[in-house]
Amino acid sequence: MNSINDYSEVVGAETINELRTIAAHLEGKIIQNINSTSVGGGVAEILSRIIPLLKELNVDARWDLIKGGEKFFEITKKIHNSLHGIDVSISDEELDHFLKITDDNLKEIVLNGNVIFIHDPQPIGLIKAKKMPGMEEKKFIWRCHIDISSANLKILNFLKKFIEMYDMSVFSSPLFSKKLKIPQVLISPSIDPLSEKNKELEKDEILNIIEKFGIDPEKKTMTQISRFDRLKDPLGVIDVYRLVKKYIACQLILAGGTANDDPESSQVYREVIEKANGDKDIHILNLPPTSNIEINAIQRASTVIVQKSLKEGFGLTVSESLWKGKPVVASAVGGIPLQITHKYSGLLSRTIEGTAFYVKQLLQNPGYAANLGKNGKEHVKNNFLITRHVKDYMLLFLKTGYKEDTIFL
């Protein structure tokens, strides 16, 4: 792991000194993060980077997981899709099972934080502990990492009973907020510029990695990096590729993996294999969660990056690609428009045909592509790096844990 001082080369020493000043006000406070998995997906990745940096700043940040079997995670996946506005049937029996597993976790998990930071719907019911003896002084925050702007009302209302028991809620975009009885805060996710996934790589290292996967380094390449998830629309990406290939010789990379709390992803992976139908220019890579250097190399070797999500909480792969100076064509959904200003720091599209048109445009005009990538990298530097994220979280913890008239700085 990198030291907090290492980031001064990217953001400046003044920013690091500011983080230390803020962190000093959290001395003696325990920040307990709770989610459903330690591997796979953006939430686990963000926590795995932020927790060590908070600890180095002498903030007592901890990370715990809830437990749940296959049935529980099948139900929470349905809840996730339903919150994204997908038409999914969730029975009362399934919601009862969700509540039962929540109660089982409440019996086992030790809530020892002064601030309990709950991430996403899977552990949302742990807020019921707030009514237990000895919990009066603890502050509970619910962090929603997904786009609930078009959420199914039945499921949203089911969860809202829990949400409004929290002291505060956090969303990634103002578009996701709902009318709630508790305060709402906007905090965008971030990338770690010094991590294995985002650090600079030597050209030979990039070449060795992509050739290991059978990727032609001389051929123009469009790439999507994402978990095999229907909402990431990998099947639609293949449609885009086939439209582009009618006019330009190119290859497609679909690289991603699965997550412990997403039982649907293996089925989506099989559907992608089937749709590729043996096309040797479609490279489908089911990567383990530790494949950070490989993802870095693939992004850097790509000509154009695509993120054709149907729904998106934020889509950190967009910022990852922009940080590498790559031109990105992405869906205008969720938090993606926060990362891309159309025709300035990338291109936004809503259809397969529109995405294919923009990919062709970038493949045929490398100067324009390079300019978009340059602007995109500067935008990420100013808005979506982990040092900003750490600052926002620490200010959130301070705001939640102290009286309104407390002055820190």
Brief account:
The chain is an alpha/beta fold and about 400 residues long.
Strand and helix order: HHEHEHHEEHEEHEHEHEHEHEHEHHH
What share of the residues does DSSP label as strand, in percent? Answer: 5-15%
Can you identify the CATH class of the largest domain? Answer: Alpha Beta
What does the oligomeric state look like here? single chain
Summed up, the domain count is 2
Number of DSSP strand runs:
12
Average pLDDT number: 94
Q: Which blocks of ≥5 consecutive residues have pLDDT under 50?
A: 403-409
CATH fold name of the largest domain: Rossmann fold
Query: Helix amount, in percent?
Result: 40-55%
Query: What structural category do the secondary elements indicate?
Result: alpha/beta
Radius of gyration: 21 Å
Question: What is the CATH homologous superfamily assignment of the largest domain?
Answer: Glycogen Phosphorylase B
CATH architecture descriptor of the largest domain: 3-Layer(aba) Sandwich
Largest sheet: 6 strands, parallel
Count helical runs.
Answer: 15
Can you list the strand order of the major beta sheet?
A: 2-1-3-4-5-6
The separation of the N and C termini measures 29 Å
Could you please describe the fold and organization of this structure?
The protein is α/β, with parallel strands linked by helices and 409 residues long. Helices cover 43% and strands 14% of the residues. The strands form two sheets. A six-stranded parallel beta sheet has the order 2-1-3-4-5-6, with helices on one face. Strands 9-8-7-10-11-12 form a six-stranded parallel beta sheet, with helices on both faces. Helix 2 (13-24) packs parallel to helix 15, helix 4 crosses helix 5 (92-108) and helix 7 crosses helix 10 (292-301). The protein is globular, with a radius of gyration of 21 Å. It starts with 7 loop residues before the first helix and ends in an 8-residue tail after the last helix.
